[in-house]
């Protein structure tokens, strides 16, 4: 069983992004799933594109997808599986916003090793695998790459003031505000997995998430950040592991960090 090539996963994310943008252009209606979250035909069609593509690329590796899981199609993940959120940031997508992403990750031995995060509405593309992380831009209309991908690296040294990025929705709670205040940090907000990528490209130092989030919301961004030199831990400082079927594939809070200094600062300032 071989790893899929990063270029192939990038191409698949771009295909899913084209599908999402085609739905946006044609118009759509949203629905509410059993867990109260929103789903659209764009989520479903993008995941169908990704699932079919992954079966061609790596037929022996199962896929854990957000929409498949909502339908009760949950595979036996084992030691290696794909973790997919076809449209991360659906709520913002339905409101006409641009901060939504396609997330594809390969998880091996409970850790994400390869990841692609693509924002179709802005053209931002991030990818990572052991050996390094990359970033580039795509044409918003065609999802064609514009030039070569460039290497990116998380900030290696602590800044004069911690730069903290948080969720545009859940990141405005008391726990996050308290965390930022204890660190004396300057904050910004964003939606979707693009927050991990801000750390990966050196534009932020910490991304705290208090409360539950699904594994497919974090795996791809985690892989990109790890490839760029950063990391992600649980709120108690333990490693963030994936494939928790018994726990419903839920992560009960995490902190993403750009470097060891950021990690230690976060551990000294619990919410």
What does this structure look like?
The protein has 271 residues and is α+β, with helices and mostly antiparallel strands. It has two domains: 6-152, Fructose-1,6-Bisphosphatase, subunit A, domain 1 (Fructose-1,6-Bisphosphatase, Chain A, domain 1, 2-Layer Sandwich); 163-267, D-Maltodextrin-Binding Protein, domain 2. Helices cover 32% and strands 30% of the residues. It has helices at residues 6-26, 41-57, 66-70, 90-94, 174-183, 194-200, 215-227, 260-267; strands at residues 30-32, 38-40, 63-65, 80-88, 101-108, 111-119, 124-129, 132-137, 150-152, 163-167, 186-190, 206-214, 231-234, 250-257. The strands form four sheets. The chain has a seven-stranded mixed beta sheet, with helices on both faces. The protein has a three-stranded antiparallel beta sheet with strand order 12-14-13, with helices on both faces. Strand 3 (63-65), helix 3 and strand 4 form a beta-alpha-beta unit. The mean pLDDT is 92.
Question: How would you summarize what this structure contains?
Answer:
This protein is of the alpha+beta class and 271 residues long.
**Strand-and-helix sequence, N→C?**
HEEHEHEHEEEEEEHEHEHEEH
CATH architecture tag of the largest domain: 2-Layer Sandwich
Q: Tell me, what's the shape?
A: globular
Count of DSSP helices? 8
Number of separate structural domains: 2
Oligomer: single chain
Average predicted confidence as pLDDT: 92
């Amino acid at each position: 069983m071989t790893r899929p090539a990063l270029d192939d996963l990038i191409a698949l994310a771009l295909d899913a992004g084209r599908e999402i943008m085609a739905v946006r252009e044609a118009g759509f209606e949203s629905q509410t799933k059993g867990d109260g979250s929103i789903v659209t035909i764009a989520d479903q069609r993008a995941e169908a594109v990704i699932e079919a593509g992954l079966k061609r690329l790596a037929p022996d590796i199962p896929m854990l997808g957000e929409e498949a899981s909502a339908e009760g199609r949950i595979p036996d993940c084992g030691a290696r599986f794909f973790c997919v959120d076809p449209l991360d940031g659906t709520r913002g997508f339905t409101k006409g916003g641009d901060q939504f992403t396609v997330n594809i990750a390969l998880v091996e031995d409970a850790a994400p090793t390869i990841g692609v995060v693509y924002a179709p509405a802005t053209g931002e593309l991030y990818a990572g695998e052991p050996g390094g992380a990359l970033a580039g831009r795509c044409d918003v209309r065609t999802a064609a790459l514009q030039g070569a991908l460039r290497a990116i690296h998380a900030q290696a040294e602590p800044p004069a003031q911690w730069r903290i990025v948080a969720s545009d929705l859940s990141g405005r709670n008391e726990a996050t505000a308290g965390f930022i205040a204890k660190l004396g940090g300057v904050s910004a907000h964003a939606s979707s997995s693009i927050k991990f990528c801000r750390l990966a490209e050196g534009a932020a130092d910490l991304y705290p998430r208090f409360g539950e989030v699904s594994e497919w919301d974090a795996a791809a961004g985690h892989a990109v950040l790890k490839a760029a030199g950063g990391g992600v831990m649980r709120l108690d400082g333990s490693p963030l592991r994936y494939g928790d079927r018994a726990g419903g594939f839920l992560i009960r809070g995490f902190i993403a960090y750009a470097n060891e200094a950021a990690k230690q600062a976060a551990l000294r300032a619990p919410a």
